[in-house]
Amino acid sequence: MQLTAAGRPSALRSRLGAAACLLLAAGLPAAARADTPAPAPTWQFDTSGLLYGEAKRTAVLEPTARITRSFQNGQSLSGAFTVDAITGASPSGALPSGRVQTTTTPSGNVKTVQADQVPTSRFNDLRGATDLSWKVPFLRYFTATLGGHLSREKDYQSTGANGQLSVDVYHRLFTFTVGGGRNSDLVFPIHGTPVGMLDTLVMQDVARNGKHVTTRMVGLSHVMTRRWLAGVYASQTNEDGYLTEPYKVISLIDPATGYTNGQLTELRPNTRLRRDVMASSVYHFDRDVLYLSYRYYWDDWGVKSHTLDARWRKPLADGSWVQPHLRIYTQTAADFFRFGILQGDPLPPYATSDERLGPLHDVTIGATYGFHVEPWRGEWTIRGEFLEQWGDGHPASAVGAQRNINLFPPVGVGSLVVGYTVGY
Q: What CA–CA distance (Å, rounded) separates 9 from 336?
């Protein structure tokens, strides 16, 4: 998914990460966990650097460091620190036109967009984030995890806490997990908060906009055989507060010619209910390991999506390994998504032209290579991926010149991650 103008990470990435933790952390094979001697206290250090780029749009450089302390009683304490340096351009929501478009930005600058090009907004940002997590096993079969996070950027601040409780049952063949979290965020757009659904830029008398996110999750993992682990995960997320993207606009379309003729500021509902279900499977062959997952998502904005993810880890003769990756994603549009609004039509109560809430599809292919370098004690990893994203570039609602323009041209996204993990 593309980054927002504010640069903050999407909720989708957070939920997928939580699901992976449920399967891989809570669902380890019982034979490997039952009645094993407590490990000696150790430290583990993980670091990585992400380089992400959308063709002619956004570029991100993200270094991350995590340090984990494991204690002899099974407890562990970890802290992660992340910095995002984000530059480039993000689609404004306005449509490409058959002629040159000239608009005035909130800062008063005049911007010209060539015919048939997707209008974008330039931005840059620096985001810092820290996460803490404390894991505590107790009463032999239970494990509790508590965490918190804080992040800050130019126009967005997020603070939150989360908790998770897992219990092993039936000879540790099943692990049942419940959890939840609460975020309290603030949105403070750089040039002020615009009033939605107006064709002139009017700012609200509000310095900061509140946003609250409450997430609940439940999961069950099962050791099917000595080689096969499967799990199912479900979550529900309630959002309320300021959910509009303050930098996004909607084009006004001349119904006769199809040319854009002005724009509106977008407006979204102030509540959103998200739900998803995810099934995961890990199968260990003689040497190789196959990871599969399928996720179905739906919300009360009308967005529905399907995600299929597959990874195959293959050890190599020299102790290194390679892991190809394939991900396929598709979603429907939100109920209030519009490819522009025809002049003269009555205005809807809510509307957005944000591509991320439109009919969207993408395919990701890539691979990770893990290896050791003497005399380094730890393991290095290099992951490279390419994502091709596209939507409905020729909708049935197109009029006039729009019929000859690809309103949603494909976007290529590349990413490279270099990581290093060491214990001592």
A: 23
Three-class SS of 70-116 = ECCCCCEEEEEEEEEEEEEEEECCCCCCCCCEEEECCCCCEEEECCC
Encoded tokens for 301? 């904005």
Among residues 167, 164, 185, which one has the least CA distance to residue 19? Answer: 164
Highest mean pLDDT among 1-5, 53-57, 363-367: 363-367
- Does the pTM exceed 0.85? yes
Sheet holding 341-342, edge to edge: 260-265, 249-253, 341-342
Alpha carbon 369 to chain centroid distance?
23
pLDDT digits (tens, 9 = 90+) for 314-365: 999 989 999 999 999 999 999 999 999 999 999 999 999 999 999 999 999 9
DSSP state of 155: S
Q: Does domain 11-423 have CATH number 2.60.120.10?
A: no
So where are the chain's domains?
11-423
Cα–Cα distances in angstroms (integers) from residue 409 to residues 35, 254, 297, in the given order: 56, 22, 25
Strand, helix or coil for residue 135? strand
pLDDT tens digits for range 232-273:
999 999 999 999 999 999 999 999 999 998 899 999 999 999
Nearest to 386 by CA among 54, 10, 117: 54
Query: How would you classify the pairing of strands 249-253 and 260-265?
Result: antiparallel
Burial classification of residue 205, based on how many CB atoms lie within 10 Å of its CB (0-12 exposed, 13-18 middle, 19 or more buried): exposed
What pLDDT is stored for residue 105 in this prediction? 61
Question: Does residue 44 surpass a pLDDT of 90?
Answer: yes
CA dihedral 167, 169, 174, 180 (to 10 degrees): -20
| DSSP designation for 121 | E
DSSP string, 162-231: EEEEEEEETTTTEEEEEEEEEEEEEE--TT--BPTT-SS--B-S-S-EEEEEEEEEEEEEEE-SSSEEEE
What are the tokens at 263? 């724009």
How far is residue 367 from each of residues 69, 89, 263, 284, 326, measured CA to CA in Å? 30, 27, 42, 19, 9
